[in-house]
Amino acid sequence: MRHSISLFVFSFAVWLLLSGYFESLLLVLGLASCAFVVWIARRQDVVDHEGHPMHLRPMRWILYLIWLIGEIVKSNIDVAKRVWSPKLPISPTLVKVPADSDELRQVIYANSITLTPGTVSIDLTDATITVHALTREGALALETGEMARRVHGVGRAE
Amino acid sequence: MQLLIDILSWITILTGSFFVITGGIGILRLPDFFTRLHAVSMPDTLGIGLIILGLVLQAGFTQTSAKLIMIFLFMIFTGPAATHALAKTALHGKLKPKAMYKQDEESST
Fold this sequence. Notes:
Structural class of chain A: mainly alpha
Radius of gyration of chain B: 19 Å
Strand order of the largest sheet of chain A: 1-3-2
Order of helices and strands of chain A: HHHEHEEHH
Number of helices of chain A: 6
Number of strands of chain B: 1
Number of helices of chain B: 4
Number of domains of chain A: 2
Structural class of chain B: mainly alpha
Oligomer: heterodimer
Radius of gyration of chain A: 20 Å
Helix content of chain B: over 70%
Largest sheet of chain A: 3 strands, antiparallel
């Protein structure tokens, strides 16, 4: 129930943001369509902690995003340098890093790895994520586990 | 003030465009499928991020800006999923990456 209410509020906020209408008839129609969406989602049985995660810690989440954007900027510059360099100094490396036990954190971790240029998560099993890194340095940096530690702080386990 | 905002948005949009072009060059220069994926993630992240930042600076504090930021968020969430789907399909289709397993390398030396 908690998830349904949150989903309703969230989708109505998105509706307001996208439409920008504040006339009463249109507002009622918007509310009705949001209620309809929540009803469909409940029928599909996707309104749970996985489909609509509410257990992330907001402050940690924002701090993590800021840190991640910093990392993305740094590795973008690094990869751009390597692409433009005439010698093409790359050393593709595969590395296996341990995955978190919680599914949501696994997804956040694997997505963060892929979002950072220079590392792509190419396979995910229960215990490990296989990562393709453009350079040895990238693989070594990932192995230090700093990103994993930060992801761990974002969402608490069920 | 308007001049300052214009200059800033020019800088961010041009830098973003530079990263998009770099992504294209990377696809041409890098040797195999898996390394090319790395080039694609540049326009996906910093390229589109900087261009949208420049457009938000132009639009100011309006509904347009909110929509632009939502475009950025959707790109951030869907981009890695698409890249991962491509990489996993390639791997399971028996495409071998031209790369060493780091663990193997260490045990052989």
